[in-house]
Amino acid sequence: MKRRLWFEDTITLRLVTTVALAAATTIGFLQLFFMFGGYWAAPNIEQTGLLQEVATVSRVISAAPQFDRVKLSNAASTERLTFEWFETGSNTAKALETANYKPSEVQSGEQLISSFIGNTARRLDAFSIENPVSAAEGIRVDKRKYPNATFLALQLQDGSWLLCSALVRSWGFYARERLLLELTILVSWIIAVSLIASRQLSHPIEKLAKDVGRYGAKPYTAPIPETGPRQLRLVVRTINAMQAQIQKFIADRTTMLAAISHDLRTPLTRIRLRGEFIEDPEQQAKLFRDVDEMQAMIDGALSFFRDDAISENITTFDLPGILHTIVNDFADQNISINYIGPVRATCQGRPFALKRVFTNLVENAIKYATPPTIELICTKERYIVSIRDKGPGIPESAIERIFEPYFRVDKSRNRETGGVGLGLTSALSIVQAHGGSIDVCNHFEGGLEVRVSLLNQNSIFLSTSNNFK
């Protein structure tokens, strides 16, 4: 049991695994670097022992008699490092003494070998095969055969010259360059490993946040899958339990309120029957008007509590087709509504529920203002449906409360001018079930504009404008 838990997916295990894999990968890359990195990966010149060899040979030749120096130079030469001695006054010695050297090469050469040779030489010049002095008389190095040859010319205390020629470069960067390279590789690799590790830890959290956000917009969505590290699975399990409790609470509330609204129909029917026995026609009409208004309130409540927008299946539908249907329905009532937009645009959602939303908004515009204009704009990420009238708008103080149940800007609640105040509340519920929201604002050119924004995985975004009182 403990062994199984040890290998369980946790944040700690992911972090340890990521670091271990990063370390193993680093070692592997270093091995490949040393195998195929060329002279970049080679040890620096101080680690090769080349400087010590040059210093030793130069001290021996400096201490030897002049007639033995040529033999000693030839004896000390190898396939990769050769030594040549030139007596004072020779053409080669004059060429070495008067040649033009790069200050940077001379300075780097002095910094590298001066501590090794001590006071053996009174002058030191370093140069490459590209320097013209490398072709001087007596210097026998083939430029074509050794294109990377490097030279170090030492003028001994008696004025003669000792030329050290490294035919093949066997060292890598110098200490300072190598340090910069190592720091660059190290910093780059730390950044890469940090990004990978953070991604391993942040990706499940981002997914959880996205799922929770989708649940917040759609309370009736399926439970969040319990995936990821153990700690996140515990969080998901808690959220799913909370989601189930919220769904049960909503279902119980809906059932209770729907039952109350349904049961109110029976006493209303009895009141209406008893009203038939009222002899005063005026009082009877007032009673019937009150009963009809209460009946309308109950019907609106039942329609709202049934929650048809949730029970309807999500399908693919033509949004302009729905808008054309609404325009045609009002045209049959001799109400002219202009539509501007594409002929066809396919999206996903609950078409009948969304049609009720748009119809309700258009009806409110007609009741309280003027027949609106519907405009559909399709972008790559969303659909924008704009329904705007030319009415007086509504007070700014009422905009924040416009979607509250039973709230109406028209306080008279006259049946001649509207319903019971649940239309916009029901519309908001339907839109939120699609993962969106509704915003109302007074247009700066006059009239009221209502935007219904539906954001989901299918990138549906709808905007409508209307007038309400």
Count of DSSP helices?
15
Spatial sequence of strands, sheet with the most strands = 1-4-3-2
**Counted beta strands:** 11
What kind of sheet is the major sheet? 4 strands, antiparallel
Helix content: 40-55%
Second rung of CATH, namely the architecture of the domain at 308-454: 2-Layer Sandwich
Provide a compact summary of the structure.
Its EC number is 2.7.13.3. The chain has 469 residues and is an alpha+beta fold. It is 52% helix and 14% strand.
Verbal overview:
The chain is an alpha+beta fold and 469 residues long. Among the domains are: 2-37 and 185-207, no CATH class; 50-166, Beta-Lactamase (2-Layer Sandwich), CATH 3.30.450; 308-454, Histidine kinase-like ATPase, C-terminal domain (Heat Shock Protein 90). The protein is 52% helix and 14% strand. The chain contains 15 helices and eleven strands. A hairpin with a 5-residue loop joins strand 10 (436-442) and strand 11 (448-454). Helix 7 packs parallel to helix 8 (230-263) and helix 12 packs across helix 13 (351-368). One of its GO terms (molecular function) is ATP binding. Residues 259-458 form the Histidine kinase domain.
